[in-house]
Design a protein that fits this description.
Elements (H helix, E strand, L loop, with lengths): L6 E9 L3 H25 L1 H6 L5 H13 L3 H11 L20 H18 L19 E5 L4 E4 L2 E3 L7 E4 L7 E9 L5 E9 L12 E6 L7 E3 L4 E2 L3 H36 L15 H35 L2 E5 L3 H5 L5 H7 L1 H14 L3 E5 L25 E3 L6 E3 H27 L5
Helix pairs in contact: 1-5, 4-5, 6-7, 7-10
């Protein structure tokens, strides 16, 4: 008998560590960063050997420049070096003994995955790079599996952290705790991402036998239009209001940063002549700058939560109501190049809609079909198939000159996407039947 198939589900919960626990968590985050850099240095050793005559700063610049134009085959050879690395090959400091022992193997696994992602899709992913200390000053994460457990519904235990950590579980799981990722966000909150191993997915949506096409839009009023006439909107006015606040905080931060740089330049200039050099203030010591930074981080987190909440509610409703969903395979990176649409497209989070719909439908055994990005869904008349090449982005409604049908642009596009999606699905089913072996 075969082994029972397992599925993995993630939960993200907010944790409330005490001061001592925060110090341990941040020490583990720093250890994860150092481990990543040590592994990467060991991997890139042949490149560093080419620039051994240069100074440390010049060598780092030369390596960064080399990696930006590195050949695919060379990355493949560098990836093989990771398979030979052992923990004894890495020169670890004494302070790392107080850190979680599982961070090293987990970081090695993540780095291997980063290389594999690049080798599979070099256009979408980049070559792994070193992480600076600045990158984890306000945010960072580490992954572990050892001695992490939920004591009860309100308490969480981490390895190498003596105190039990309060946790708010709004969506518990009955599965086995498989993996834990601890993350510190820029707004100075701490989160635990828990991955559970389960026999089946928690949410199982009932089959309805219905299909639908989706047309995505950058405007808030008809953000998502379905082929059956349903329209979903998001609170774009609220999003714009928060974005304006973030811009205002950015301007304040920029002014305070420039003021700090001028003060540092003056002190450094005076220190050249002084017998006893004066203290040069660090940016972390500027309390007003840190207050503005924290305020901006909280606004950004609030904005992200509004977007995620809206998208998940819409996608959940669509996944509940339909078994087959067809949508366009949009070229978002190409759309952002249009300066007039760039901000609206970036705000729309089309990629998150696609990913959220995909996992919600797959969990329930439903189907998501992607229609080609060059399919003229808006220009085709749904009634007769006439193609209107003169249609512009401003035309939200138009009359078909062939059959005189009055068409709403978004609804017409959604209907065409549904029809094309069903045609693609029919072709896939026909091919699968043709490949299946015949009766003997």
């Amino acid at each position: 008998m075969g082994t029972e198939k397992k599925v993995y589900e993630g939960r993200v919960f907010k944790i409330y560590p005490e001061k001592d626990s925060i110090e341990k968590i941040e020490l583990n985050i720093e250890y994860a960063r150092v481990t990543w850099n040590n592994l990467l240095y060991h991997c890139y050793q042949p490149i560093y050997a080419k620039y051994c005559d240069l100074s440390r700063k010049e060598r780092a610049k030369a390596v960064r420049k080399y990696l930006s134009s590195i050949e695919y085959t060379e990355v493949k050879e560098l990836r093989k070096r990771l398979n030979k690395i052992k923990r004894t090959d890495i020169d670890e400091k004494e302070w790392t003994r107080d850190c979680d022992s599982q961070i090293f193997p987990q970081t090695l696994r993540i780095l291997k995955k980063a290389f594999d992602n690049y080798l599979k899709n070099p256009k979408h992913f980049k070559v792994p790079k070193f992480k600076s200390r600045k990158s984890i000053r306000y945010s960072g994460s580490y992954q572990t599996t050892n001695a992490c457990r939920l004591v009860n519904e309100c308490t969480f235990k981490l390895n190498k952290v003596s105190n039990k950590i309060p946790i708010y579980q709004h969506y518990p799981s009955d599965g086995r705790l498989y993996k834990v990722n601890i993350k510190k966000k820029p707004d100075e909150t701490y989160w635990a991402s828990l991955v559970y191993e389960q026999s089946e997915h928690t949410v199982r949506r009932e089959k309805t036998g219905r299909s639908v096409g989706i047309d995505l839009n950058v405007s808030g009023g008809n953000y998502i239009t379905l082929s059956d006439g349903h329209i979903y909107s998001v609170p774009f006015e609220e999003i714009k209001r928060i974005e304006n606040k973030i811009e205002r905080e950015n301007r304040k931060l920029s002014k305070k940063y420039e003021q700090w740089r001028k003060e540092v330049a003056i002190i450094e200039n005076d220190n050249k002549k002084a017998l006893i050099p004066a203290h040069i203030p660090k940016l972390e010591e500027r309390s007003n700058y840190q207050k503005n930074r924290l305020k901006k981080a909280k606004l950004q987190e609030h904005l992200n939560n509004i977007k995620k909440d809206s998208i998940r509610k819409i996608c959940s409703q669509i996944a509940n109501d339909y078994d087959i969903v067809a949508m366009e395979d949009l070229n978002v990176s190409g759309m952002i190049k249009n300066s007039k649409l760039a901000r609206a497209v970036a705000r729309s989070n089309f990629r998150e809609i696609r990913d959220t719909l995909k996992y919600m439908l797959e969990w329930s055994g439903k189907k998501l079909i992607f229609v080609g990005r060059f399919y003229p869904s808006s220009k085709l008349c749904y009634e007769c198939g006439y193609k209107n090449d003169n249609l512009t982005l401003k035309d939200r409604e138009w009359d078909c000159p062939n059959c005189n049908a009055h068409l709403l642009r978004d609804l017409n596009a959604a209907k065409n996407i549904e029809r094309e999606g069903l045609r693609i699905l029919k072709e896939e089913i026909t091919k699968e039947k043709g490949k299946s072996p015949g009766k003997i």
